[in-house]
Amino acid sequence: MKGIAGVRQAERALLVGVGLQRSPSVEESLEELAELARSAGAQVWGQMSQKRPRPDPAYFLGRGKLDELRAEVAATEADLLIFDQNLSPTQQRNLENAVGCRVLDRTQLILDIFARHARSHEGQLQVECAQLSYLLPRLTGRGVELSRLGGGIGTRGPGEMQLETDRRRIRRRLRKIAAELETVRKRRAQQRAARQAASLPTAALVGYTNSGKSTLFNALTRAEVRVSQRMFATLDPTVRAFRLPSGRDALLSDTVGFIRDLPPALIAAFRATLEEAQEAALLVHVTDISNPRHAEQDGEVEKVLAELGLEARTRVHVFNKIDLLPAAERRSLRTHAGNVYLSAEKGWGLDELRAELDRVLPGSQRVHLELELLPSESETLALLHRFGRVYSQRYRNGRLVVEAEVPEFVARHFSAAKD
């Protein structure tokens, strides 16, 4: 859809939800789908819903609702339909032929958002892997459309290569991506091994998308990770050191947010990223307490953690965005062991969180020491500055006398060197 001077305008989207047995509320689910659509750059022009005991095998919807949907598309001149469930390739093709516009399902929409937000080479590889794995069985009859570069939401990113070419070429590309991602995984494993050798305890932020993890990460580490109100703004994991109240150093990693029905292809493709959470000694589960559905969102996070084998991992539960609650409700909050209420945006409760992390995180205490170094021992001095806090440096009898406070593992290193 083009505007003045060929500038692309936001696509008009109609949202479609079908309430199946044991599925969440259609209305609440469509609210989340609307946020996802806006994160992908669409304008939401309306929504329709239907309750059914099971999907129609040909159209997902019932035939009467399909006629209603066709009329709505014609009246609104919608560019695309976005379904809140996952469609089979046959259902997707049948719907497009019936209504005369593009049709996306929930997984394809999430993949598009990931493609929009992937910044690093690693992130782009992960998204491309997930897109191609998803689109491979959908090639039949859709080659011309999927080959268009920049064809709109759902065709953005690395996955928009010429998908109508034979499947062997796509599978070759998937094998190449898998090899590159395995290299990334090994490099991350080496980096984690180096951190573990340094005995620095690691905590990982996990939680539902848009719960405020990156804002909290920046507040604790003074980093400048990109923060956005859009969903899935963080794809690439970031690890930073921060200081605990006891003086110990620890590491904190920011990870990709979770969501209901997170596509299995994404979990598989982002394995290297999610391993940051798997290797952490502590999980910091961040909840947006201002969201009326935060309990359900926490349940979805628990499902993903269980899939990753992390359900029993030690954790601290952070209830974020208390500044958005009414004052009376804030006053009624009661902190329990392992729970912290805060506002990362306002800085409220950060000291309480640091104290709780200090209490729960494993690791060594800091040791005060005085060392005499030869002029040739510049690497030792660099080690002190890197891992400790140097209080004073002075020369005595041709040697540099350094007074510093260092983690216990660094002190053990110096003791072993003397022996």
How does this structure look, described?
With 419 residues, the chain is of the alpha/beta class. It is built from 15 helices and 13 strands. The strands form three sheets. A six-stranded mixed β-sheet has the order 6-7-5-8-9-10, with helices on both faces. Helix 5 runs antiparallel to helix 7 (167-197). The longest helix has 31 residues, at 167-197. Mean pLDDT is 81; it is low at 1-8 and 143-150.
Quick summary of this structure?
With 419 residues, this protein is of the alpha/beta class. It is 42% helix and 20% strand.
Helix content, binned percent: 40-55%
Which structural category do the helix and sheet elements fall into? alpha/beta
Instruction: State Rg.
Output: 26 Å
Distance between the termini: 74 Å
CATH homology superfamily name of the largest domain = P-loop containing nucleotide triphosphate hydrolases
Overall 3D form: elongated
Reported CATH architecture of the largest domain:
3-Layer(aba) Sandwich
Mean pLDDT level:
81
Main sheet summary:
6 strands, mixed
CATH hierarchy class name of the largest domain: Alpha Beta
Say how many strands there are.
13
Low-confidence stretches: 1-8, 143-150
> What is the count of DSSP helices, taking H or I runs of 4+ residues?
15
Indicate how many domains the architecture comprises: 4
What is the ordering of alpha helices and beta strands?
EHEHEHEHHHHEHEEHHEHEHEHEHEEH
Beta percentage is 15-25%
